[in-house]
Design brief:
alpha+beta; about 40% helix; about 15% strand; Beta-Lactamase; single chain; four-stranded antiparallel sheet
């Protein structure tokens, strides 16, 4: 009886060791043919266009009963316009700006970082400067060039993203 139990344990252990040693390829080792998110930076977004994007966000948020903070930065990640809707939480002021800055600096939506960390376990992204792994940062693209980004915060990430998309739609054509 003891010998049979010992043999079963030894067999299970050796199977575990052999499967543990079988390495899966690391997806980060794949070398893409082209640079991802390689969009050229353009001239900075104007105040008028930034305010129009914010107006679209706040209209969408008001329609849904959401109180958000909205920030628009230019192609150099400098704040151009900001709005805090009545009742929007104070902690989200800086977060909306952070989402916009991260989106323009890295030329992608902040949802990419959220998914990278949560779905793909790309923990290395947490070590990169200015990353925010929360959706709600959207690049603003005019004529194929990155002119700025918009960031929303104050709701659930999906709410922030949906509202920001309404603002981005005024620029991204």
């Amino acid at each position: 009886m003891k010998l049979g139990l010992f043999a079963a344990i030894l067999t299970a252990f050796s199977g575990f060791c052999s499967s543990a040693s079988a390495q899966q390829p690391n997806p980060l080792d794949v070398i893409p043919d082209k640079m991802p998110f390689n969009m050229p930076y353009g001239a900075p977004i104007s105040l008028a266009r930034a305010q129009a994007a914010i107006a679209a966000v706040t209209a969408e948020a008001e329609k849904r009963g959401w109180a958000l903070n909205v920030a628009v930065v230019d192609s150099g990640a400098n704040l151009v316009a900001f709005a805090r809707m009545d009742g929007a939480q104070l902690g989200s002021i800086a977060i909306s700006e952070h989402k916009a800055r991260a989106s323009v600096k890295f030329r992608r939506t902040t949802k990419v970082f959220e998914e990278g960390i949560q779905k793909n376990d790309y923990k290395y992204q947490l070590s990169l400067d200015d990353i925010i792994a929360s959706r709600g940062g959207i690049p603003l693209i005019d004529d194929g060039k990155l002119v700025g980004a918009i960031g929303c915060s104050g709701g659930a990430g999906s709410q922030d993203e949906a509202a920001c998309m309404a603002g981005a739609a005024t620029i991204n054509k």
